[in-house]
Design a protein that fits this description.
The complex is a heterodimer.
Chain A (H helix, E strand, L loop, with lengths): L1 H6 L7 E6 L8 H7 L3 H9 L1 E7 L11 H20 L7 E7 L26 H19 L4 E7 L1 E3 L6 H6 L3 E5 L5 E2 L1 E3 H13 L4 E5 L5 E2 H7 L3 E5 L4 H10 L7 H9 L6 H5 L8 H18 L8 H11 L1 H7 L3
Parallel strand pairs in A: 2-3, 3-4, 4-9, 5-8, 6-11
Antiparallel strand pairs in A: 1-2, 7-10
Helix pairs in contact in A: 2-3, 4-5, 7-13, 13-14
Chain B lengths: L2 H11 L27 H18 L3 E3 L10 E5 L8 H13 L3 E5 L2 H4 L3 H7 L2 E3 L2 H10 L3 E4 L24 H9 L3 E7 L1 H4 L2 E4 L1 H7 L5 E3 H6 L13 E4 L16 H25 L7
Parallel strand pairs in B: 1-9, 2-5, 2-6, 3-4, 3-5
Antiparallel strand pairs in B: 6-9, 7-8
Classes of the chains: A alpha/beta, B alpha/beta.
Chain lengths: ~325, ~290
């Protein structure tokens, strides 16, 4: 397990932290393991006693990681992380988990807007969804067993932004973009800056609970494609995966299992609760799409290779350097 | 803490990335007018143009009591449901949108969403899947007019022999939604839809194979052949809006007494059934009203 995590580049993005009394060395195995692949992190972890864990490394994109590794990272990784955070005498007082609205799935029987307490209507078929559901189950149990710890779970809608690469963003930046013939679903996006801001907000203010986070409004997939200047490639509504498979092989499109339902029925989440908790996204759904495609256009013209880092690293940097976090930890 | 101080501190600590700053909201430019339910006023106006001749000259729709429908604020419209391909839904939506100039969202079975093309068109012209969450958001949060057929598919799937006999009103869910949203229920009785496309018999085995709610064999098919799939008989439509029903309960509760809900639903159903019989007593001809 340790080797699987270590050999995976995702491990670099394992945690963000707030510090408290930066004197006590840390003996939790998970952190020691993680630091072996990330020496800067290790120095900080060794010199601090972790007070806040921000769990951002959940994989929500099945094209990134093979199925087995995905299970290791999401399920086993979270299990170890929570086990470490929950052991007796643990200094951890806050756990923030970055999840995804993938946990709601996407089916014809769905409501147009999911509130946090509304359960998904269809069984989870894709591996990512199953693993995320399992992870959220662990987190729920953890919150129940550790009432003194502030536990927050943030379910982010599909992320778009200048840096992050997802199957949707890579589809949208290609000349052809898959759709399912006869379907024009409504989608919701969140900008990567808002993801970071939201995690900052929740961590800084120690807000417990389960929250949906997404930009205001929804856009039809056809309109998203039009804004991005890509042409829709309608796939057959029956045997969609079989039709898509050769195109995926050729590298024309990306079509992971979690897109199949999404491109038929779309998804929407209600963000009333996070708004009441004092956070609102800066970017609306259409704002996120537009800022995404502007960045893509710039990159096309300037000819810069897309940056290889994803926003998780930003989050991590934030927790290492932000005055907010150190203030929280009383570090002067 | 002032922003400048914050920035200063961050610079001292040597932040590697620029932190996103909270500024004004960023909204993009929309290319279509599709709203968050998938309804597009543009598509809707095209649909109204196409449907107008059918509404005015074919069905010759007459309303009674249209003034009982509020010009603003949410209200749950319910109606009896009939015809193999229900003709009552477009008639009600068209009529109210033309007369009152405000949108109506029509709730229907999830099944529609699964059918390619039809599902998309249906959503663009104001169709919404009948989920309690959807109804609640439309009625309570957005104050929209929402049309629901409490009989569900049991209404249009009944044969001609059962015409104008209201089916069971589901589990009274519509009453509960109206209670939670704190909006009135406005019943609408429709006469004429039953005769526009009556079902002679059904093919349940074929429906099972196709995975659809029902497969009807209509009088229209027998009369016109394949054209009968979409061609309505020119039955005269008469609609009567009944007095809004309000419930003397606090809104926003998670649950309401089931017996109270069922009782209210049954009262409304009985009232609608009586009105329907009354309207049929007054009707001299199916075709001329």
């Amino acid at each position: 397990m340790a080797q699987a995590l270590e050999s995976d580049p995702e491990v670099e993005m394992i945690l963000g932290m707030g510090t408290r009394e930066p004197t006590v060395p840390l003996e939790r195995a998970e952190f020691v393991r993680a630091d072996q692949t990330y020496s800067i992190l290790s120095r900080i972890v060794r010199a601090t006693q972790v007070d806040t864990i921000v769990h951002t490394f959940l994989v929500v994109d099945s094209t990134r990681v093979p199925g087995r590794a995905l299970h290791e990272i999401n399920v086993i990784g979270t299990m170890n992380l929570l086990a470490a955070a929950g052991q007796s005498g643990s200094p951890v007082r806050q756990v923030v988990v970055k999840s995804s609205t993938l946990v709601y799935g996407s089916a014809s029987t769905d409501p147009a807007w999911f509130r946090e307490e509304v359960p998904r209507t269809s069984p989870a078929r894709s591996r990512v969804e199953r693993s995320l559901l399992e992870v959220e189950g662990f987190v729920r149990d953890f919150a129940e067993d550790n009432p003194a710890t502030v536990v927050s779970v943030l379910r982010f809608a599909n992320v778009l932004g200048t840096d992050i690469v997802t199957p949707i963003s890579s589809n949208l930046s290609k000349p052809l973009c898959p759709s399912v013939s006869g379907f024009d679903p409504l989608l919701q996006f969140v900008e990567e800056d808002d993801v970071v801001r939201c995690m900052e907000h929740v961590t800084r203010n120690r807000i417990p609970g389960l929250y949906n986070v997404a930009g205001t409004g929804k856009l039809p997939w056809s309109e998203v494609a039009e804004i991005c200047g890509t042409r829709l490639l309608p796939l057959s509504p029956v045997a969609t995966r079989t039709v898509a498979a050769p195109l995926v092989r050729l590298g024309l499109i990306e079509f992971p299992p979690e897109l199949e339902g999404l491109l038929r029925f779309g998804r929407g989440v209600d963000t009333t609760r996070i708004t009441k908790a004092g956070f609102s996204c800066r970017y609306t759904t259409s704002g996120a799409v537009e800022s995404f495609i502007r960045a893509v256009r710039l990159r096309r013209s300037v000819g810069k290779a897309p940056p290889s880092y994803t926003y998780e690293q930003d989050v991590e940097q934030f927790f290492r350097h932000s005055p907010a976090v150190t203030h929280l930890g009383g570090d002067v | 803490m002032t922003p400048s101080k914050e920035t200063l501190q961050r610079e001292q600590r040597g932040a590697l990335v620029a932190l996103p700053r909270a500024e004004g909201p960023v909204t993009g430019t929309r290319l279509t007018d599709v709203d968050e339910w998938g309804r597009s006023e543009h598509s809707r106006s095209i649909a109204r143009k196409v449907f107008a001749p059918l509404y005015n000259n074919w069905f010759r729709v007459e309303w009674e009591g249209l003034e009982k429908i509020p010009r603003k604020g949410g209200a749950l419209l319910i109606a009896n449901h009939a015809a193999a391909i229900p003709s009552d839904a477009p008639v009600i939506m068209h009529g109210i949108e033309e007369e009152l100039g405000r949108p109506v969202y029509g709730m229907a079975d999830f099944f529609f969403r699964e059918v390619p093309y039809l599902g998309t068109v249906w959503a663009r012209v104001g169709g919404v899947a009948a989920h309690p969450e959807n109804a609640l958001r439309l009625l309570r949060d957005q104050g929209q007019l929402t049309l629901v057929f409490p009989e569900g598919t049991k209404g249009p799937s009944k044969t001609y022999a059962d015409r104008y006999r209201l089916r069971r009103f589901g589990r009274g869910g519509f009453v509960e939604i109206a209670m939670r949203a704190g909006v009135p229920v406005i019943p609408i009785c429709v006469v004429g839809a039953e005769e526009s496309m009556p079902i002679v018999f059904r093919l349940p085995a074929l429906a099972r194979i196709l995975g659809v709610p029902y497969v009807p064999v209509t009088a229209n098919m027998l009369a016109f052949g394949p054209a009968g799939l979409g061609l309505y008989f020119p039955a005269k439509f008469k609609l009567r809006v009944l007095d809004p029903v309000t419930f003397d309960v606090p809104s926003g509760q998670e649950r309401y007494s089931k017996s109270r809900v069922m009782e209210e639903a049954e009262t409304i159903r009985r009232h609608m059934q009586e009105t329907l019989y009354e309207m049929l007593r007054e009707r001299r001809s199916v075709w001329f009203g």
